[in-house]
Amino acid sequence: MRDRLLGGLSPHAFMLRYWQKRPLLVRGALPGFRGLNGKRALAALAARDEVESRLVERRHGRWRVTHGPIAPARLRRSGPIDWTLLVSGVNLYHAAADRLLRRFDFLPQARLDDVMASYAVPGGGVGPHADSYDVFLVQGPGRRLWRLAPPRDWPLVAGAPLRLIEQFSPDEEILAEPGDLLYLPPAWGHDGVALDHCLTYSIGFRAPRGAELGAAFLDWLHARGLPQREYRDPGLRPCAQSARIPDSMLRHAAASLARMRWSRADVAGFLGEYLSTPKPHVSFVPRRRRLARAAFAQRLERTDAVLDRKTQLLYLGRRFYFNGDALAPRPAGRAALAELANTRRIAGRALARGGLAELACEWYHDGMLHLERVA
User: Fold this and answer.
1) Which of 197, 194, 161 is nearest to 66 (CA)?
2) For residue 215, how many other CB atoms are within 10 A of its CB?
3) pLDDT tens digit string along 210-232?
4) Distances (CA, A) of 336 to 72, 305, 330, 352
């Protein structure tokens, strides 16, 4: 399956030759691919408050971006407007989109972000731009013309509501048809224009910037008790230069910040919680009917435990991270939990034998894990 997805390349060969080096076009990577959802289903998702969506419109060369929820009536208009509807996180709501995302599990789950669906009318697109992350573009129904250019110091259009490249000059053009896959490394300039009513699916990747990680890490440290010593200056004297910052305040700040300490283990713990934490708009639906623990244990023995599509389970060493919470299971449960993390499904009895039945029961009632009959 993967060989066809990557044009006959093994994942190892793809990573060696193309990953973050150069684009790859695979004709017929998904033969017979008819898309994951149509315009109507995508519009229904875009109308929901908890779903991230955008409507990008271009009229007479001027761009406009509307953030969701998007009223379906906005998509019925006609006239000289090129428009594109973008819906992020489609994999959280559609099983087929989640299966498409998992086709790329030869890459770390910590890097996989989501599947974004793009529906465009003829002429629609989001303009020439460059992403800071890798992306696989899977063409659904319809055709899209891609124009590409290698990374450079891209000048941006001033005042535009999108980060558009000014006077984009492509080096290559590619016509993507249903089932084709196009991989683009970070910083490659690209502009995709729909030739028909078309659907394109983008598999994006997480690539947190240093500043983003730094800010989140400081918040993480603060939640675990940064020094709270308040500033006091009982010996303060009248000053002749009132705008000058006092030396005592500088000493206090230096001493407080010098007490901040962290280890590699702290960074690993932060990263696991940070990467597994659901995005702010993601929520789970608790089960209305709760099972007694004995009844749950009986059901667990004869079913498979399956992670909810919105659940993220990662691990590093002996520690596991479940939707932002750190776990330290006993040795008997680590192998089962690792299998669940890697494959997102495991025989329920394996969790029970690993001493994880009680934890699985909590996840089940919170809507984060499901029990399915063994096929």
Assistant:
1) 161
2) 11
3) 999 999 998 888 887 666 678 78
4) 45, 11, 11, 9
Q: Residue 78 above 70 pLDDT?
A: no
Instruction: State the Cα–Cα distance between residues 93 and 53, nearest whole angstrom.
Output: 13
Q: What is the pLDDT of residue 320?
A: 97
Tokens of 240: 């002749």
Write the CB contacts of 276 (distance below 8 Å, at least 6 apart in sequence). 312, 313, 314, 321, 322, 323, 324, 325
172-176 and 313-316 as β-strands: parallel, antiparallel, unpaired? unpaired
- Pick from 297, 311, 303, 298: nearest CA to 341: 311
Q: How far is CA 337 from the centre of its chain?
A: 22
The residue among 353 and 242 whose pLDDT is bigger is: 353
Helix axes 210-223, 264-276, angle to 10 degrees: 100
Quick: pLDDT tens for 321-371.
Answer: 999 999 999 999 999 999 999 999 999 999 999 999 999 999 999 999 999
CA of residue 257 relative to chain centroid, distance: 33
For the entire predicted model, the pTM comes to 0.89
Q: Look at residue 235 in the predicted model and tell me its pLDDT.
A: 82
Question: Is 252 exposed, middle or buried, given 0-12, 13-18 or 19+ CB atoms closer than 10 A?
Answer: middle
| Residues whose CB is less than 8 angstroms from the CB of residue 95 and which lie 6 or more positions away in sequence, other chains included | 309
Amino acid at 266: D
Instruction: Report the 10 Å Cβ neighbour count for 112.
Output: 18
Per the DSSP assignment, residues forming a β-bridge with 56 are: 65, 84
Top-confidence residue, 75 or 119: 119
- Asked if 180 and 141 count as a contact pair (C-beta separation under 8 A), the reply is no
Average pLDDT on 273-294 reads 93
Phi and psi of 346, rounded to 5°?
-155, 155
Q: Token pair of 226, please? A: 């940064």
Helix (H) or strand (E) holding 362: helix 357-365
DSSP calls for 277-343: SPPTT------SSPPPHHHHHHHHHTEEEEE-TT--EEEETTEEEETTEEE---HHHHHHHHHHHHH
Backbone angles phi, psi at 14, to 5 degrees: -60, -45
